[in-house]
Amino acid sequence: MKNEKFTPTVAYLGPEASFTHVAANHLFGGAGLMPYPTIPDCIEAVVAGHVAYAVVPLENALEGSVPMTIDYLFHGSELFINAEIATPIEQHLMVNEKQADFVDEIESVHSHPHALAQCHKYLQYRFRRVPLMQTTSTAAAAKYVSENPDEKIAAIGNKMAAVKYGLHLADENIHDFHFNHTRFVVLSLRKEKLVYKGHSASIKTTLMVKLPEDDRSGMLHQILSVFSWRRLNLSKIESRPLKTGLGNYFFIIDVLESEEHPMMKGAMEELAALNCTARSFGSYYTYEQQPLRHS
Ligand SMILES: O=C(O)C(=O)C[C@]1(C(=O)O)C=C[C@@H](O)C=C1
């Protein structure tokens, strides 16, 4: 982090000026950050020991979980969550300077699937039936538009990307709902709580819980009561496909407590006694980033 003596290398979903870059920069400062083209690339870089940490998007307030991160983190990775940052997301439509006078003639809009979805209503009314092209990140879309000045294309992304890739801002704040935030997580091979001084933070533990093979009625109720009678506050529960067959799920459960707390230890023991498989992805601090200010 910014105030540590050494500079860790940190993979983030790039290229430069992605929202993930903004989040990584906020936590670690600029030094040591390395862009990777995809979320799996970021995760694999940590697993292979090429970098100490990876910063990837986990969940968006409008669109829900980022499937790519969920898939690579929860299915077979040995990684832990070391910190979380919730970042405000403001989406803008940008075109190459050469196309600034021809915005009405745009033939395709490019961005990350989450960003396209966050602007669905805007796109529906402003660019009805214009093809939407998915890219690996919002910044990848902005870079593509900058590299193809003669194409009638637009990108959706943040203002930093417009500046970085020299694009013209055609329409600002085009996300459909005002409260647009994304949670980014810092991942590493170690259980560690990264402390970012000067910011208020709350503690959270992320668990992956699998039901016993012999699924019984009321099992989910029993799992929830493990937490409720201990007064452990859950901030999220999500079911995801186990990928072993239709109807087979696991649960991602976020608890607002540290796993070292005696109540959490008791909860893990009770889950085991219920024949559930519960894996902790670690306890970590969650931070909130204030909106970007542009001069
Ligand atoms: O970091 C980026 O720029 C991304 O394109 C990723 C991502 C996401 O996966 O949710 C990050 C934040 C926004 O919600 C839109 C896209």
Q: Shape, please?
A: globular
Could you name the CATH class of the largest domain?
Alpha Beta
Ligand types: prephenic acid
Radius of gyration: 21 Å
Largest sheet: 10 strands, mixed
Distance between the amino and carboxyl termini: 26 Å
> What share of residues are in beta strands?
25-35%
GO molecular function, one term: prephenate dehydratase activity
Keywords: Amino-acid biosynthesis, Aromatic amino acid biosynthesis, Lyase, Phenylalanine biosynthesis
Protein name: Prephenate dehydratase
Pathway: Amino-acid biosynthesis; L-phenylalanine biosynthesis; phenylpyruvate from prephenate: step 1/1
Concise account of the structure shown:
This protein is an alpha/beta fold and 295 residues long.
Would you mind describing this structure in some detail?
By secondary structure, this protein is an alpha/beta fold. It has 3 domains: 10-89 and 180-194, Periplasmic binding protein-like II (D-Maltodextrin-Binding Protein, domain 2), CATH 3.40.190.10; 92-171, D-Maltodextrin-Binding Protein, domain 2 (3-Layer(aba) Sandwich), CATH 3.40.190.10; 202-286, Alpha-Beta Plaits. It has helices at residues 19-28, 39-47, 67-74, 113-118, 120-126, 138-147, 159-164, 219-228, 262-273, and strands at 10-13, 33-36, 53-60, 64-65, 80-88, 92-96, 108-111, 132-134, 153-157, 167-171, 181-188, 202-210, 234-241, 249-255, 277-288. Strands 1, 2, 3, 4, 5, 11, 12, 13, 14 and 15 form a 10-stranded mixed β-sheet that branches. A 5-stranded mixed β-sheet has the order 8-7-9-6-10. The longest helix has 12 residues, at 262-273. The mean pLDDT is 92. The protein binds prephenic acid. Residues 13, 18-20, 57, 60, 66, 89, 112, 114-115, 137-139, 182 line the site of prephenic acid (PRE). Pathway: Amino-acid biosynthesis; L-phenylalanine biosynthesis; phenylpyruvate from prephenate: step 1/1. The record marks 182 as: Essential for prephenate dehydratase activity. Residues 9-189 form the Prephenate dehydratase domain.
